[in-house]
Automatic annotation (TrEMBL):
UniProt GO MF annotations: carbonate dehydratase activity; zinc ion binding
Keyword set includes Metal-binding: yes
Name this polypeptide is given: Carbonic anhydrase
Signal peptide: 1-15
Family (UniProt): Belongs to the alpha-carbonic anhydrase family.
CDD domains: alpha_CA_prokaryotic_like
Length: 158
């Protein structure tokens, strides 16, 4: 698994926030955010007609995950491949830093998903046992049938 090489990108992501024009902020400010009244706990309230899925907390951010609800998967049934790359483009979307990276794969059983991109949220969008984390990374995979398999990694300041 090449998660170590992805984790080594975190300092570069943080440093890139202050470097060059590709990371210039968007002209318009998003209507949502990650703190206070514009944060995940109030996304539904910002626009109830558009954000109805945010009110349930089961399939759309923010999701509260109970550690007792997490199912464990046998390591032999999951294979994650993230390629080593020498050049990446980081895009500042105003609410997250997104990195398109299209030649990674996630195999779960006999089903293969292709990595489309990964991005970061700080603080985390989702909670585990009601706890937010300083940062969350989303790895967005899809298959040929456009089935999406987002996977998350949480980072703590332990």
């Amino acid at each position: 698994m090449r998660l170590t090489s992805l984790l080594s990108l975190i300092p570069a992501v943080a440093a890139s926030c202050y470097h060059n024009t590709p990371l210039a902020r968007r002209a318009s400010v998003p209507s949502y955010g990650y703190t206070a009244t514009r944060g995940p706990l109030n996304w539904y309230g910002l626009d109830p007609s558009a954000n109805v899925a945010c009110a349930t907390g089961t399939h759309q951010s923010p999701i509260v995950i109970g550690s007792s609800e997490i199912s464990k998967v046998n390591n032999s049934t999951v294979t994650l491949y993230i390629p080593t790359v020498s050049d990446l483009e980081f895009e500042n979307l105003g609410t997250t830093i997104e990195v398109p990276l299209t030649n990674g794969t996630l195999v779960v059983g006999n089903h293969t998903f292709t990595l489309a991109q990964f991005h970061f949220h700080t603080p985390s969008e989702h909670r585990i046992d009601e706890e937010y984390f300083p940062m969350e990374a989303h790895f967005v995979f899809s298959d040929e049938g456009t089935r999406i398999n987002p996977s998350c990694a949480y980072f703590c300041s332990c």
